[in-house]
Write a structure and sequence with these properties.
Elements: H1 2-11, E1 22-23, E2 29-30, E3 36-39, E4 57-63, E5 66-71, E6 76-82, E7 88-96, E8 102-112, E9 115-124, E10 127-136
Antiparallel strand pairs: 1-2, 3-4, 4-5, 5-6, 6-7, 7-8, 8-9, 9-10
Length: 140
């Protein structure tokens, strides 16, 4: 009986409830994190068009599948990672522009080593615009 319990303990990683990475609730995990400062690598505007002050970067913070971001204007965004696999995820964020318009960001995040690319769409009630940036991240 002791040998069976020892086997189960070792097979389960020794400690029940320990996390080894981020998961999306389906058992698919990430070895790294998409946390980083996403800016346009060419130095141009990160969001091509907005009703508020231009957005040149998003500082993304990931905790599991929960994501918070702050743009260069100090505006907060909240959202989640979905469709997570070993090195990519779909990001959805909600926030506002400096002019007060509601914003929805839908983007794909793709990691390669210690770099990530965010590519997607910035959507306001009266416009839609590409959003793009790269960041240094915790390696995958």
């Amino acid at each position: 009986m002791f040998a069976l319990l020892l086997f189960v303990f070792v097979a389960c990683g020794g400690f029940l409830g320990c996390e080894t990475g981020y998961t999306n609730g389906t058992g698919v995990g990430l070895a790294g994190s998409f946390t980083g400062l996403y800016a346009n690598p060419t130095g141009g505007v990160r969001v091509a068009s907005s009703t508020g002050t231009f957005v040149s970067y998003l500082q993304l913070t990931q905790s599991g599948t929960d994501v918070n971001a702050v743009d260069n204007n100090g505006i907060p965004f909240q959202g989640t990672l979905n469709a997570v696999n070993s090195t990519s995820a779909t990001l959805t964020l909600q926030g506002k522009t400096t002019a007060g318009a509601a914003v929805s960001i839908t983007a794909s995040l793709t990691a390669s080593g210690s770099s990530a690319i965010m590519s997607g769409t910035w959507t306001e009630p009266t416009l839609s615009s590409p959003i793009y940036g790269t960041a240094s991240i915790t390696p995958f």
